[in-house]
Amino acid sequence: MAEVLVLVDHVDGEVKKVTTELLTAARRIGEPSAVWVGEASDSGTAKLAEYGAQKVYTAPAELNDHVVAPTAELLARLAEEKGAGAVLVSATAGNKEIAGRTAVKLGSGVLTDVVDVSAELVTDHSIFGGAMVTKAKVRTGTPVVAVRPNSVPAEPQAGEAAVEAVDIEVSAAAKGARVVERVAQEQGERPELTEAAIVVSGGRGVGSDDFTVVEGLADALGAAVGASRAAVDAGWYPNQFQVGQTGKTVSPNLYIALGISGAIQHRAGMQTSKNIVAVNKDPEAPIFEIADFGVVGDLHTVAPQLTEEIGKRK
Amino acid sequence: MNIVVLVKQVPDTATERKLTSDDFTLDRAASDGVINELDEYAIEEALLLREKHGGEVTVLTMGPDQATDSIRKALSMGADKAVHLVDDALHGSDALQTAYALSKALGTLEFDLVVLGSESTDARTGVVGAALAEYLGLPQLTLAGKVDVEGTAVTVQRQTDYGYDVVEAQLPAVVSVVEKINEPRYPSFKLIMQAKKKPVAKLGIADAGIEADRVGVSAAGTETVEASPAPPRAAGTIVKDEGDGGAKAADFLAEKKFV
C-alpha cells in the first residue's frame, strides 16, 4: 500500500485535531506517514500513533524560518522518494500555499478546501458560498489535497509512528522570504477558530466593540469567537476572527450567529457547519434560511439567557 | 519601482453563480463580471507604493474578452497601463495552470514587485500567489496585512493563525494582500475619463511563450467530475423571543447534546 503523506499541524508540541482527521482520511487511501517540521514531541508522536501513522518523518524546525517554500521542498522530495499515493494538508491559508507549491514541484494537480475525500481520491467541495457541491479529482501526478478542518471525523486506529529524521538541504531559491519576527496576538484560552468544534460569532447586531455578550456565550460552551465582516469593518473585533468569504472558513459542529444577517459573504465562511443557531431581530434575515434553530429577538437579551441556561444545565 | 498588479474578473458574488453543464467550468455568461474584491486591495496597495516610490503600475489580467471591463475599472482607479492575456486556449485552466500562464506573461514585462489578492471569490483556492512565486523562482511574501519597501528590500506582515510574521525579502518578489491592508479608493470622474485612453496590450499564448498543451481544461491537472446545487438544508425551527428565547435555544442545544 502506498504511503500517504500527512503534514502535521502542531502547536507547542501538541498535534492539532485536524491532523488526526487527515490521518483518518489518509487511511482510506493508503498507509499514513506523518511529516513533522520540527522535533516531534513524545505526546505528539503518541497522538499520531493513536490515529494510525505508521511513520513520522521529522525535518529541522529551521524550515519554518522561510515562508512556505522549504516545507514544499520537503513534501515534494518525500513524495518522490517514497512514491507517495497522495499528500494531505489542512486547508489553512498557509498550508494551501504549501500544497500549491508542492504540486508545482511534483507536476501534480492540487485540490483545496476539500470537505471529504474517498479511497479513490475523489474529493467533495462546497463552492459559491455553499450554493453548489462538486466532486473533483487529480488527473496528473501525486494528488495534493488540502482538507478543511472538521470535515472528516477523526477515528483512532493504532499505528507504529516510527520516527525517522529526514536530512534535507533547503535550496537557496526557497530561502528568498525570511521570517524575521513572529508576533502573537492575544487569543486567550479559547480554541482556535478554524479548529473549534463550536463557534459563536457576533455581527452588526452586537452594536459596539463590547463583545462580552458573544464571548460570554462562547466561554460557556468552550467555543471560539468569530465575527462578521460588518463587525470587523466597524473595528469592533480584530480582523483575524473574521468568518466569511474574505475571512476564515469554519465548519464546526455548532455555529451560533448572533446579530448576523447571513449575507453570502458570511455564509461562504460557515455554511458547511453541522448545526446552525441564529439570533436576529429581523425575521427576514437570510441567516434563518440556513438555521437549524433560530430565535427572532434581541441578542442582548437572548444570548445572556442562553449563557445562563447553559451554566444551570452543566 | 515598477509594479504589476494581477487582477481577475470574477462573477459578482451577489448574483447566482453557476458552472457550465458540459465541462463544469465557470459559467461566465450566467452572472455579471466584477473585479475580484481582494484584487481591489492589491490595486490600492500598488498605487500607494507608486505614490511613495514612483514608477509605474501595470495591470495584468488573464481572462476572456469581457474581462476588459475589469481592466478599465482597475485603470480608472489609477493604474498606468494594462496587459490582457486573452486566448481561447486558456479556457478552463485551473489554479496552477493560471499561475503558470501568468508567470509566462510576467516574463514579457519588467517589474520589481508583483501584487495580487490572496484569493479569488469564485474558486477561492488561495494557491495562485504561492504557485506563481514557485514558477518565477521569486520570494513569496503572501497573505500580507502590511507592505513596506525600502531600497531593494521589501517587508510584509504575513497573517498567521496566531497573529503575524514579519517577513523580509529582496526585490523582485511576489506579494499577496489580505483585506485589512487598506481601503480601496473609488475612481474619480477624471480618472475614469483618462482610463479610456490608457494603453491595454493584448497578449496571446504564443506571444507569452505559453505552450498550448499546458493550459486549458483538457490539460488541467485537476478535473471536476460532478456538480450540482447543494441539497437544501432541512427547514429549521424558528421561534419568536417571548422572554424565553434563550431558554428555548438551550433546549435545542441540549437535544443536540451540546449541553
Automatic annotation (TrEMBL), chain A:
Family from the record: Belongs to the ETF alpha-subunit/FixB family.
Record SUPFAM superfamilies: Adenine nucleotide alpha hydrolases-like, DHS-like NAD/FAD-binding domain
Domain Electron transfer flavoprotein alpha/beta-subunit N-terminal positions: 4-183
Subunit structure: Heterodimer of an alpha and a beta subunit.
Any single Pfam family the record assigns to this protein: ETF
Electron transport found in the keyword field: yes
Top-level taxon in the UniProt lineage: Bacteria
Cofactor: FAD
Assigned keywords, A-Z: Electron transport, FAD, Flavoprotein, Transport
Role: The electron transfer flavoprotein serves as a specific electron acceptor for other dehydrogenases. It transfers the electrons to the main respiratory chain via ETF-ubiquinone oxidoreductase (ETF dehydrogenase).
Transmembrane segments: none
Keyword Flavoprotein: yes
Protein name: Electron transfer flavoprotein subunit alpha/FixB family protein
PANTHER family in the cross-refs: ELECTRON TRANSFER FLAVOPROTEIN ALPHA (PTHR43153), ELECTRON TRANSFER FLAVOPROTEIN SUBUNIT ALPHA, MITOCHONDRIAL (PTHR43153:SF1)
TrEMBL record, chain B:
Residue segments, region Disordered: 222-242
Cofactor(s) annotated in UniProt: FAD
InterPro entries on file: ETF_a/b_N, ETF_b, ETF_beta_N, Rossmann-like_a/b/a_fold
Gene3D superfamilies hit by this protein: HUPs
Positions of the Electron transfer flavoprotein alpha/beta-subunit N-terminal domain: 23-212
CDD domains tied to this protein: ETF_beta (cd01714)
Domain of life according to the entry: Bacteria
Keyword annotations: Electron transport, Transport
Subunit structure: Heterodimer of an alpha and a beta subunit.
Entry similarity comment: Belongs to the ETF beta-subunit/FixA family.
Record's function text: The electron transfer flavoprotein serves as a specific electron acceptor for other dehydrogenases. It transfers the electrons to the main respiratory chain via ETF-ubiquinone oxidoreductase (ETF dehydrogenase).
Name this protein carries in UniProt: Electron transfer flavoprotein subunit beta
Organism: Nocardiopsis suaedae
